[in-house]
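Re: the request from the purification team.
They wanted to know what the chain is likely to look like in 3D before they choose a buffer screen. I agreed to run a prediction and write the result into the notebook, where they can find it.
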Amino acid sequence: MNRAIAFLVTLVILVPASRSSAQWVPDGVGIATGNFAQERSRAVSDGAGGVLVAWQESRVGHWDIYVQRLNGAGVPLWTATGVALCTEAENQQEIALVPDGAGGAIVVWEDFRTQATSGTDIYCRRIRADGVAQWNPAGVPLCVNASTQTSVRAISDGSGGAVVSWRDARNGVDYDVYAQRVNASGVVQWTANGVAIATQPGDQTIPDITTDGAGGAIIAWFDRRSSPDADVYAQRVSAAGVPLWADDGVSISSVAGVQRNPELVPDGAGGAFISWWDSRSGNFDIYAQRVSSTGVPQWTVNGVPVCVAGNDQLITEPIASGTGVIIAWHDNRAGSADIYAQGLNGQGVPAWAANGVEICGATGDQYDLRATTDGSGGVIMTWADLRTGQNEEDIYAQRVTSAGISSWTLDGVQLSGADSYQVEPQIASDGAGGAIVVLNDHRTEPYDVYGQRILSSGSLPFTTFTPRGSSRKHW
């Protein structure tokens, strides 16, 4: 083989045949980049190494719902500009997204089509793995009561459908919590306009939801039935739509001070781990509780302290880990928002350093925290980061083992450092120890939606090199 032929063979080996085989590039792949505002994206795993993404878009002068699927190589699999899932009159916005277990997803949203007469409603629709939209083209109504329904959250029912919760103003005085289930065929399963979860006097608001592992759900919220200060309550609803615990929920924390914004994940035994921010000591700290499948709190009454360091700790993000839970949060102990985390075993005993381990303590604020499992008992976290200056948020990520050890670059790996700011990252496991992060991006006007993958090693899935005699190029 002469030198010329050898050189050509080397090029064939080293240079990708086409971009379609590997789309990930520095600063992320454009998912929705049209000449309209695309924002408030949500992402879940497609179960095959890729990700399903939904967002709200103002293509026709109001917010509508669009969806896209990317495979593990970062290649969009559906219509280039996304599949239009709902384009009814007025706004469709504030999305919740759950996988359908078959490579597709169920998208739930708040809908303003009848706002002039009945406030916002809750609708949903399914998108198949091949990008074909299912169910009523206008969406399946989950609640169209003549009032306002907001703060929608959803989880899979384990059978191709979803269980959805929201806060509801139908009593005309304050907010209550309601829920509904829709099956894989788009048929509503419970009482029309939803099952009442909590309707006590005073607000029951901002509910979060997780699976009970049996087709139903556990729902937690902050509750003002006893005083203007908020407490945390929870309720389990069966697959048939029957509340299973005490009427209007069981108390998770009713101590003096404010307990608010509960987040919960399943404990693997029909119950849940619940975390929240808590002002019982003056500033906001992080507390947690485990509730059994029968509604009995398992740990210290009113919760165990996860972090009681100085200044405020806010916005928890729990991820189930083995028989316990890993909880991450925004931490202001040093005067600006950093990222900390703590692991708790199944008995509620902190397993890492007192008041948590520092995940990112870089200059400036770190916020918009999200996390997913790494598949090995640890977590992958992502956040918006101001270390390079105000209004210059970038997106970073870190992997933390079950022992509380950060295994990637100190203070995180940069996923996107494009011009202007990138915020509100969403994260989904890639099924191989890494993750795909979807973000709202302001590198051009108005917002776009981008995505980036990070491998289990902490490296990004492309190679950057500078060929001799040429400018910098990315592959």
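For the purification team: Helices lie at 3-14, 115-118.
Please add any questions underneath this entry.
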